[in-house]
Design a protein that fits this description.
The complex is a heterodimer of chains A (197) and B (234). With 197 residues, chain A is mainly alpha-helical. Chain A folds into two domains: 59 residues, Autophagy protein Apg5, helix rich domain (Serum Albumin, Chain A, Domain 1, Orthogonal Bundle), CATH 1.10.246; 96 residues, Ubiquitin-like (UB roll) (Roll), CATH 3.10.20.90. Chain A is built from seven helices and three strands, in the order αααααβαβαβ. In chain A, strands 1-3-2 form a three-stranded mixed sheet, covered by helices on one side. In chain A, α4 crosses α5. The radius of gyration of chain A is 18 Å and the shape is globular. Chain B has one domain: Yope Regulator, Chain: A (2-Layer Sandwich), CATH 3.30.1460. Chain B has a six-stranded antiparallel sheet with strand order 1-2-3-4-6-5, with helices on one face. In chain B, a hairpin with a 6-residue loop joins β5 and β6. Chain B is globular, with a radius of gyration of 19 Å. The two termini of chain B are 26 Å apart. Classes of the chains: A mainly alpha (197), B alpha+beta (234).
Chain lengths: 197, 234
């Protein structure tokens, strides 16, 4: 899948010790289940399409459309060549918002669970409530994935994981979007069963 | 959910319901599918086409692409023996699936599609293009309209080709503005699909357009949103 490797690890192998041992297959590609990855250009196209979609949510595509082709290229090259400053010179513009607002228009996020047929949950969700209060990670889950959050007095059934850590549910979503998004500008959130050790 | 949405999910479902009503009248094969968790759904259609032995030789018509054939006709050999000489198989039947989903990120409908041979093996994008008329190929390759990429179907999770939605608003806005000017109701889905569909082998009979303004009186009666489950009652 075109999923970030960190997401795959959180979702499928978070209880494994590192290094993560994987099996690579060279035959019988499952055409009906997985996307092909024929070239670097395809990965670049997929990455840019995610960045554009994230900006459609955050800024109605205004920021990404105002950029020149060379800026898009710099974003991709910065990621490809592991050049932090090169990447962030462009990405910081995607993390800005108008002074009069308190955050992005909507938050780009996807919630993954291995127990559902649907590959991920993605919905429109505003970072700021009408009364000006910042929505939290907990607010998001309650709204779009209520089964993931344990009832007040109940036992914690699931871990809510981003980049291998469990952020506090009280964390403002706007902050998470600015600081914990993946390079494609999405928050990729894994809901996995609580380990029983 | 949000008032400033120009084309929200409820509106999308409403137009799909109207579209499917007409499809049922003319036997065009579109149906609504609700996701397993019942939170949303999509419109879909399957059609079968014959692929000739050779890719070229349009002969000025799109006669080699036939839609909605009963299976017996689909297995007849082609009339032109010269074309048959070039390949090992005389004809192949290809199954096309078209899905119309709603993108909340872009707040427009999106066309997903895939094609496979009858044994289930999928077609690559370049094979699908062989069934598309030349004029659409040029538009797709050079036009500012849309690009096609392979992506995961947001509800089924399987690989589909997608006509990227980032330009949809651009070409739909003049259509909708004009219809407001001449005070004629337009089914967004009908207009949109009639524009993007042909580029990927999907054609809409003209009667859909006539149905859109015949339904003008009915739209208000039905209300602003139609729940997907009412489609099953039709």
């Amino acid at each position: 899948m075109h999923y970030p490797i960190g997401l795959l690890f959180d979702l499928l192998a978070s209880s494994s010790a590192l290094p993560w041992n994987i099996t690579v297959h060279f035959k019988s590609f499952p055409e009906k289940d997985l996307l092909h990855c024929p070239s670097k250009d395809v990965i670049e196209a997929h990455f840019m399409s995610c960045v554009k979609e994230a900006d459609a949510l955050k800024h109605k595509s205004q920021v990404i459309n105002e950029m020149q082709k060379k800026d898009h290229k710099q974003l991709w090259m910065g990621l490809q060549n592991d050049r932090f400053d090169q990447f962030w010179a462009i990405n910081r513009k995607l993390m800005e918002y108008p002074a009069e607002e308190n955050g992005f228009r909507y938050i780009p996020f996807r919630i993954y669970q291995t127990t559902t047929e649907r590959p991920f949950i993605q919905k429109l969700f505003r970072p700021v409530a009408t009364d000006g209060q910042l929505h939290t990670l907990g607010d998001l889950l309650k709204e779009v994935c209520p089964s993931a959050v344990a009832p007040e007095d109940g036992e914690k059934k699931n871990q809510v994981m981003i980049h291998g850590i469990e952020p506090m549910l009280e964390t403002p979503l706007q902050w998470l979007s600015e600081h914990l998004s993946y390079p494609d500008n999405f928050l990729h959130i894994s809901i996995i069963p609580q380990p029983t050790d | 959910m949000e008032e400033d949405e120009f084309f929200g999910e409820e509106t999308f479902q409403h137009y799909c319901a109207e579209f499917i009503k007409h499809s049922q009248k003319i036997g065009d094969g579109w149906e609504w599918r609700t996701s397993k968790d019942c939170s949303d759904g999509y419109m879909c259609k399957t059609q079968f086409q014959i692929k000739n032995g050779t890719a070229v030789s349009h002969r000025g018509t799109s006669a080699h692409v036939q839609t909605c054939l009963p299976m017996e006709e689909a297995l007849e050999p082609p009339l032109d023996d010269f074309e048959v000489m070039q390949t090992t198989t005389a004809t192949e039947v290809i199954k096309y699936e078209y899905h119309v989903l709603y993108s909340c990120s872009y707040q427009v409908p999106v066309l997903y599609f895939r094609a496979s041979f009858l044994d289930g093996s999928p077609l690559a994008l370049k094979d699908i293009w062989e069934g598309v008329h030349e004029c659409y190929k040029t538009r797709l390759l050079h036009g500012p309209w849309d690009t096609i990429t392979q992506q995961e179907h947001p509800i089924l999770g399987q690989p589909f080709f997608v006509l990227h939605p980032c330009k949809t608003n651009e070409f739909m806005t003049p259509v909708l503005k004009n219809s407001q000017k001449i005070n004629r109701n337009v089914n967004y889905i009908t207009s949109w699909l009639s524009m993007v569909g042909p580029a990927v082998g999907l054609n809409l009979p003209l009667s859909y357009a006539r149905a859109a303004f015949q339904d003008e009186g009915n739209v208000d009666r039905q209300g602003s949103s139609i729940e997907p489950k009412s489609l099953e009652e039709l």
